[in-house]
Structures are given as C-alpha cells and as structure tokens.
Design goal:
By secondary structure, this protein is an alpha/beta fold. It is built from 11 helices and 12 strands. A 10-stranded mixed sheet has the order 2-1-3-12-11-4-5-10-8-9, with helices on both faces. A two-stranded antiparallel sheet has the order 6-7. A hairpin with a 7-residue loop joins strand 6 and strand 7. Bound molecules: 3-isopropylmalic acid (IPM) and manganese (II) ion (MN).
Length: about 375
Amino acid sequence: MARTHRIAVIGGDGTGPEVVAEGLKVLKAAAAVGGFAYETRDFDFSGRRYLARGGSPTAPTIPVIADEELAQLKTFDAIYLGAVGDPDVAPGILEKGLLLRLRFELDQYINLRPVKLYPGVPCPLAGKGPDDVDFVIVRENTEGLYTGMGGRQYVGTPHEVATQIMCNTRHGVERCLRYAFDLCRKRNDQKMLTLVHKTNVLTNCGDLWFRAFNEIGEADYPDVRRDYNHVDACCMWMIKNPEYYDTIVTGNMFGDIITDLGAMVQGGMGIAAGGNINPAGLSMFEPIGGSAPKYTGQNKINPLAAIAALAMLLAELGEAKAADAVEKAIAHVTGTKLKSMAAGKMGYTTTEVGDLVAEAVAGA
Ligand code: IPM
Ligand code: MN
C-alpha cells in the first residue's frame, strides 16, 4: 500500500486559488514519480467568506477560521496555502486571523525561506548568476515582535503611548538555532551559519541569541562555522556579495525584512516560496508574494512560487524524490521557457506554466 498524505488546501484570496491549482496539477505528476498517494481538501478562509459571514471590514469582529475548522486542519499532514489579503478587508484582519493564528496555534516556529536563483531568472544584481545566489534563511516564526505583547494608552491624545515588545525565550531561540545548525550541516559542504541580529543596540535580545548561538554551536555543532552579521550590514552584503551566504538564522522581525530582500535577489515574488514549519508537527507552505488582486482571474499570475512551495511541502513530508523532480522541473521551465517572471509577461498563461512544470515532472 502506498503511503497517503492528507493535504489541506487553503487557496485564500486574490490569485491564491489560481496558483494553488497549478501546484496541485504538479502534485499529481509528482505523486506518480514519487510513488505515493494523497488526498486534498479545500478550506475557504478567504476575505470574501469573512465578509459574507458578516465580519466587519474594519475590525476583526468574527474569527477568520472557526475553532472547529482549526480542529479539522490539525488532522492533516500538511497545509498548502495560496495567498492572504483582500483589498476590501482592512490590513491585519486576515493576516492575523489566518496566517499568524496558524503559525502560533500550530507552533510553526520556523519560517524557512530558500533564496535560490533558478537558471534563466533575471537577477537584479549586476553580474550575479545561479552560482552566486543559493542560500537559505531560517527565520524564527513565533516570538520576537510578533507576540503582540505591549500595549497602548491615551490613544488619540498628544500623550499617546505605544509599546510593542520584542519577546524572546531561551527555549524559542534555542530550538530555532538547533534547526538552523542541523539544516546548515546537511545542506552542503560550506557549513557556515550566519546569525543575523543587532547585538550592538538590542543588548537584551541580541545577547540571548548570541550566547545561545555560541554555546550550542560549540557544544553540539563544532563542524559548523559560526558567523555573525548585524542586520543592517547583512542587507548590504546580501546585495554586494550574495555568494557569501550559506545558511542565515535570525529573529522574527529581522527575518521578515531580509527574506523579502532575499526574494528580490532571487528574481522576485513570482518565484519565492516559504514554509512555516513545525518540525514535529503540521507545517504550512506558501508562495510569499501577496494575493495580487489586480491579476485575479486573469490567468496571468506566475504560479512558480506556489509550485516551489509545493516542492518544499513534499520535502517536509519526506518525499525527497518527488520534491527533487519538482525542483528540477521548475529549473527546466525557467531555464528554457519563460520570458519573464512577471505576471502577464511570462510568454505563457498561468495554466500553461503549470502544464509545463507538470509535463517536466512527468518526464523525469
Ligand atoms: C510574511 C508576511 C507576514 C509576516 C504578514 C502577512 C503577516 O509578510 O510571511 O513574511 O509579516 O510574517
Ligand atoms: Mn514578510
């Protein structure tokens, strides 16, 4: 009996459902190559549904995901997410109600973002090619500035006070660091892990990260070279010398920022994928571009980022052969077919790009 993976599919908003549909096309081909079975189930957690159920467009008056739905999600092996964000719903409502809620409730404490320039993809950095851009960012995903700790007082008065606390725990930092060390060790022969923080100013959180990094590295990963960059310097090096990096590990907010920088370095939102990972539990994979409302329903959006997210999902499920076949198929399509990564300029429609990748997987 072939193993069966149960995958929850959240198309989400805007072009999310369209790109996920192409990913599922590729999944079908990948399952044949990898010799596994799968089941999918769609969950509608869109902004449209939120509004249709009477949610306010300006304040989170009802949950985006009901508790029973969350309980159902927990029975799946992986989650495949399209996009979150609807122009008719105020920013923050869907992001917090869906994406952040799942990250926290499912304890997806790793945000994994490969920064890989595929062949044929134009790099905005002069003179840099696929050999120069191939690193991975491990972002802590459940702490830092994202916990919601802090508060406000005297709102709307000249004395308004607002605080947002960067909260880190030894437990949270340590498990993230260990994941990064493990990944770095097996990634390639470079074995260099760069901690990115701001230890010269954030002397509480920065010191916690820095000490844990060195203690854990020295005790358990002596074969991994330890490197440190301040986050501002990292932004410069990533542009000037992306080939310098192997594996980067960082906190939540800095990670949010430098992963978008990484997305541009690898050719933009059309190709950048990420995973919200609970290494011992339920993980969720997504293209990191937004819902691109202006392209919705036009068959113009680039589905490759969603397909790359599918490859990550397969790798996390232990389907290395299938994941590899999808990766290679993406490289084949970027290297020999697409004119551009940009929506409407690929030389193909969304569905045609999905077909090309699925065919390449099937031919693997
Ligand atoms: C990301 C996104 C989210 C984040 C938003 C949508 C809440 O930017 O996944 O990087 O800030 O983490
Ligand atoms: Mn982000």
